[in-house]
Amino acid sequence: MTRFRRVIDEGAIWVLAAPLSIWAAHFLLCYWVAAIWCAKGWDEAVRMRTVHAGLTLAALAVIASLAGLARRRYRGELRVDEAIEGDSDADRNRFLGHVALMLAALAALAVVMTFLPTLVFRQC
Amino acid sequence: MTWTDRLAPPPQPDPAAREAEKQRLIATWKNREGIARLTEVNNTTVGLWYTAASIFFFAFAGVLALMIRAQLAVPDNDLMTAHFYNQLFTLHGTAMMFLFAVPIFEAVAILLLPGILGTRELPFPRLSSFSFWCFITGGVFVCGSLFFNAAPAAGWFMYTPMSSDPRLTGIGTDIWLLGLSFIEVASLAASVELITGVLKCRAPGMRLNMLPLYGWYVLVVALMIVFAFPPLIAGDLLLELERAFDWAFFDPTRGGDPLLWQHLFWIFGHPEVYIVFLPSIALVATMLPAFARRPIVGHSWIVLSAVGVAFLSFGLWVHHMFTVGLPEISLAFFSAASEAVAIPTGIQIFCFIATIWMGRVVRGLPMLFVSGALAIFVFGGLTGVMVAVVPFDAQVHDSHFVVAHLHYTLIGGALFPLFAGLCYWYPLVTERMLSDRAGRWSFWLMFIGFNVTFLPMHWTGILGMPRRVWTYSADAGWSTLNMVSSVGSFAIGAGFLVLLVEMLRPRRAPAKAPRDPWKAPGLEWVGALPSEDYGLRSIPLVTTRYPLWEQPDLPREVEDAEWFLADAPEGRREMIVTDVLDGQPIYVQRVPAPSWLTVGAAVALGASFIVATWHLWMLAGVSMAAFIALLIAWLWTGTARPPEAASKDVGRGLRLPVYASGDGSCGWWAMFITMSGDLTAYLGLVFAFFFFWTLHDPFPPAGAGLPQAGWLALSAVLLAAAWGAVWGALRVNRAGGRIAAQWLLVAAVPASMLGVAAMAQALMIAGLDPTRHAWDATCWVLVLWIGVHVGIGALMVFYCVAGISFGKLTPRWDADLGNVTLYWHFLALSSAITLALLGLFPVLGIAT
Amino acid sequence: MIAGRRVHFGFPAAARRRCARIAAPLTLLALAACDTPTSMLAGAGRDAVLVERLFWIMLSAAALIWVLVNGIAFYAARTEANPERERVARLFVVWCGMIVPTVVLVALLVGGMLLLRDMRGPRPDFQVTIDGEQYWWRVGYDTPAGRVVTANEIRLPAGRTVGLALASTGVIHSFWAPALGGKMDLIPGRTNRMTLTPLEPGRWGGNCAEFCGTAHAQMRFEVEVMPAPDFDRWLAAEAASARVASDAGLAVFTSAGCGACHAVRGTGNAGTTGPDLTHLASRRTMAAGILPLDRDTLAAWIRDPAALKPGALMPAFPDLKDDAMQPLLDFLTGLK
Description:
The complex is a heterotrimer of chains A (about 120), B (about 850) and C (about 325). Chain A contains 4 helices and no strands. Chain A has helices spanning about 1-10, 15-40, 50-75, 90-120. The radius of gyration of chain A is 18 Å and the shape is elongated. The N and C termini of chain A lie far apart (about 50 Å). Chain B is an all-alpha fold. Helix content of chain B is about 65%, strand content about 0%. In chain B, the strands form 2 sheets. Chain B has a two-stranded antiparallel ribbon with strand order 1-2. Chain C is built from 8 helices and 14 strands. In chain C, helix 5 packs across helix 8. Chains in contact: A-B, A-C, B-C. Chains B and C meet through helix 3, helix 9, helix 10, helix 11 and helix 12 of B and helix 1, helix 2, helix 3 and strand 9 of C.
């Protein structure tokens, strides 16, 4: 399993995929919670909005920690036109960190946008 | 000290030896002549055919569009019948999406990717060839049905229950379902190949931060295909089961629901839009540096956008279903994601504009098409943001406004960049330049024609004209606008014709395109002209992102055979497989030579799908058996043969193994990707299960049979034993216990088959009847899925047993067994989920 | 119809007139020959008016953004390369590519959601059920005296909110009267609900908006919005049994088996497969809004429906002799 592990651990490829996977999980859970709460009428037991808020906070917390991880790999100021094209392991690592960090920002934004409907629509 | 520091200096020039090497390379890679040419597997040849075939289907679907416009030109037109018109628009959408938009991505990628990544071939050349022949067979079948007035006529979205009830739609629907499922298999095969190609088959030294943007996009899009197509395949399976065998999935009188199909279709259908769009953006990102004379601004930002769009595009599917009556809050989630996806999409566009700004732009035909694309696509994107707002969509949904919107995004976002790419890479393929004058004529005809056609169409929609209508009355007030659209559409056709004629017309003058005519930085331009079938003379070491700009000696070094694999002493086609992260060479992969087996396998598989359309199950079974036989012969002769020596010198003193097994090998990655897609299709079925759970209260419905627990437990034990046996066989074989491994493998077959039988028995005892209720049908389809996979798994196991017996698979050369074990891991996972759904879920469901 | 429209919901009158003026050339072009307008901009219903305002705002913003983006690209392509511009380019990508779109999109999302909440808000004053059939619309009014069934022509009172219950037994259809508001699908096995608040009296056109088979294009309907008192009178009349103008015609109707599919209340014919014909002659159109209702068209329709409307499921009666057809037509045209 060595090479697979290397890609996962050393390469931090998973940090690239993780933030938006968290968004996807958050999105699906919010949708399912809404669909199930509406279909099964569970709103009396637990408020749907409470569940959504909890999910959002959890998602943001995980994304923040992922961003921290990416930030450590990137070790730099966030710049638009930084090429990071050097021929070394460190450069490759920084490049992936850079992309992962921005993906975390995008994921956080998308999570917040997914939460907005809950504020507008009280019930089904 | 890295591996590059240990490389020897380039060899001394020795013209005679160089020439001998070159002749061996030529002999090894030479394309077959005559009829045997059809068996060719090299990516350049197959990619070219694939591209030509996709463009042919594009032209076919374009002609259908012109016929549609001819019918709609005047009100109350009697040019064609309603039924024929319905076939036209169904086939137009179907062909454009499944036979052009997705295949052209794969075609161009197969053609260009190895060049752009600085290598000679994709990892599985026979798979490319197989994919192409599947595509041709299925495409001709689906399109040809029009000439028998039997084409699908229920829309390219095939909504149930119209499509699921054989009394409402005829054989056209079966042709659509089976023909396209077959083409989807071809698309998936090509995607697996492309993903593995980007990850594992790059020029040595090409680290991820040097991977060209084209590689990133291909990776992202191919992964999207792997996760987006399977839900549709699952949907196709359910739909065909209902049509052919009356299983209850979509019939509301038996607990089914038409909306299940819409979910499964659009979970595929919306990512599909981005699957079509992103590859064209990739072409722009690849061309732009050459014309701006500088690197792309914000390389990492574009990677971020590509990855971001890929993810977010999976959260948009319900925006095709805003009017089906879902709760507002559900609609709003998808509205949010639909707005969010515009952000990464916009970032790409603005990075491109920034690049143009900071560079000095050189004019050229490709840039003309790119600027036209920008003008059109931005407009389509903006109307896209508009239709993402639910109340507005409630008005314009399924009106001609949406027709206009989607053509703005697809033609602006996908077609114009593609034409730009055709102009740009035309000299690479043909060694000739396209005429600038013809190109400009073509562009302006298409650009003006396009806007004349589709800009007024927004207004036609605002005036209330619905989609998919074969006629309208004169007093509706849509006549003038429709006439304008129809006139414009013929201008588009004329523009395309000009481009096509210019590309295909025979030329008397000899080839005269210079090498790298655009002064581009990409590796695909490194080779000398005229090119040889082998592609690159030697495989270079890449240490920069824009190699032809930053490593100026590279063309000479490559041509002087100073780098790797400059020779083919064994007469085998070879390529270097590299590490995912840093492009470090891992081993030399022998890729198989041309063979009739792949063509035969594709045709046999196609035949089994085609005859199944007429429910000729016997013949379908025979064709399927032929396919399996050909497939096994292809694998047995072509893949993972034990090598004659453990390692070889690939040049510059670099010694590499010539065989790999486990997760170092391409095969393992391909299996992993394939099974991820397969698992996604299975999850589509699981989605159906939970969908019915939210729909019905309670689910399982009161009085329904519950799978019998005892038999399920027995099934779990047997399947777990089979899985353990296969896994154990891998270990035992590696430790040298060949006979013991064979026994373990042989034992796995009856264990797994009995396991499935026990599962089926658990349902049968409980009296579950798939034609009675959606619950019964869903349970049975989950079991059916496991049953089919156990069957395939058994074939694989026998293949390994035979491999051990005949010395193809040994304790040291055990790649096949490693891949088969991986397959069984996935099978174990889906079996576990099935058993939990059948056995545990009803218990919990009743408890709540 | 544009000119005579009232101003609704506090949308600035000046802006409204301006929009109307911009739209007028295009809209009037379409409305000139049209007696049942289907334009989304006709403003005959509350939802349509709200969406129209949203449309003009979004269209203006989109036009502005389009001009800016393409203008910048055009300008960028014509300037010389200048490495000093790095900082400007970076600010450009960050602001134009990220911050501004994010703000605009979030604002649009929230605005769209608030509008949606507003549109789904009104409580219906009364209920109408609409069933999608291949290829026509069954319309039912729930009155205290029971359900009054008619087809293809929906009459609604101006100023009252109607709740529509939408269902289908065969395939999916979609109910869409653009002049009044957005659409909603009719899905077998489900009952979808939407509300409409018609404002402008008049006849407004509608179409099936979801592809439903061969005659999808010709599955139209008409909404006649009338003053509330007129509506109440009409509904009372509609609830009454049929007026038989020709006993001979009724005999043909019954003996030819028309009653197996069609109901004519009060005559013993109570089929439900086809449209209810009790007050057929009070309708202006037939065959789901595509043909004028008169003797000749009716006769042609009865002889061969599919010739007038390909895909129509009503069987043809080509052998009906003229001495049977004429009384039948007397009977049908007498069903006021």
